[in-house]
Sequence to fold (339 residues):
Amino acid sequence: MNVLWSKSKRKSIERDVEMKIGLIGTGGFSRMHAGLLKQIEGVQIASICGSSSAKAENMAAGCKGAAAFGNVKKMLEAVKLDAVYICVPPMAHGDIEKELIQWDIPFFVEKPLGNDYELPRQLAAMIEEKSLITSVGYQFRYMQSVYQLKKLLKDHKVGLVTGNWGGSMPQVHWWRDQTQSGGQFIEQTTHLVDLLRYLLGEIREVHAVYGEQIIKEKYEGVTVADIGTVSMKMENGIVANLTNTCILPEGVGNIELVFYTDQGIIKWSPKQLKIITAGEEKTHYYDDSGYLEQSKTFLQAVQTGNRAGILAGYADAAKTQKATCAALESSRNGLSVVL
Ligand SMILES: NC(=O)c1ccc[n+]([C@@H]2O[C@H](COP(=O)([O-])OP(=O)(O)OC[C@H]3O[C@@H](n4cnc5c(N)ncnc54)[C@H](O)[C@@H]3O)[C@@H](O)[C@H]2O)c1
Fold:
């Protein structure tokens, strides 16, 4: 077994020395992150780990110089990595993170942190104990539209927020299975819950109503709700309501938050910010996705040891997970859940 690469050595990486990155998961989003990493100077995708070596080899063929593995431990023993990207489905978390924590390897992990709250709660404590650098895939926090929105909200008193996440059902096999994905609110709408927390503070109480209306009839093996609405009361008294659905046809969808404030209405969607005040309406347009900025920020933190730029670390993201899992509990027992 190779000697652990110490934190102090990691911090001393020179700018002209390539950072070695490992990717875990070989699906759609691992490939998306691999594409971004290839655009970042000074970064090498050194290894790929899949649920089988064959899958990892297939993906590694497109990443020059990357070694392929079917087991995380074997990958860490064989390659000295500066950081790892975890891009696996919600039910596959746990052992991967524990292994990385044991090896002191900083990691970026895609949202959601799991399909429940108990595991992220435990992992957050282990990460805290090691003071490990982590970043979670809440890329909306890095978008220009959200940066401007956060600035704008400083001058507004918000009373009410409404929001929607509407789309079609993702076709990856695990998504439709409640025990694997956790359902849409945990899996996708988590982005909006995370933005509420990032922009307005902590959530105190949630009440959810979910239903099954259409996709069960269209697809085999569906156990997730396909419609739902979640009302939230925040610590500062703001009331928010988010709806989500995955019943829409492919190519139709909306993601938005609407803020009702003492000065008017602010409508946010990822690429647009509309400000409506008495007698005036202004719309601003943006074209970034937040993904590249998110990755660069994480890698810079790993390189310098300064994590101040990371907008969603593991402990923070675990609070978002707590709220989305509380919504699931509420949808099941019909009662409000206080966080
Ligand atoms: N931030 C975003 O906006 C965004 C967008 C899409 C997906 N995601 C997230 O990315 C994650 C992955 O989604 P995806 O679309 O790539 O799914 P996918 O099904 O396409 O890929 C998942 C991959 O993980 C692999 N895998 C599962 N368990 C593993 C294990 N123990 N070790 C190694 N590999 C394992 C599978 O074999 C598969 O290759 C999900 O949590 C999803 O929510 C985030």
Remarks:
- The chain has a mean pLDDT of 94.
- The chain has two domains: 7-138+293-313, 140-288+321-338.
- Residues 24-30, 49-51, 55, 87-90, 92, 96, 110-111, 137, 139, 172, 187 surround nicotinamide-adenine-dinucleotide (CB under 6 Å).
- The CA atoms of residues 243 and 307 lie 33 Å apart.
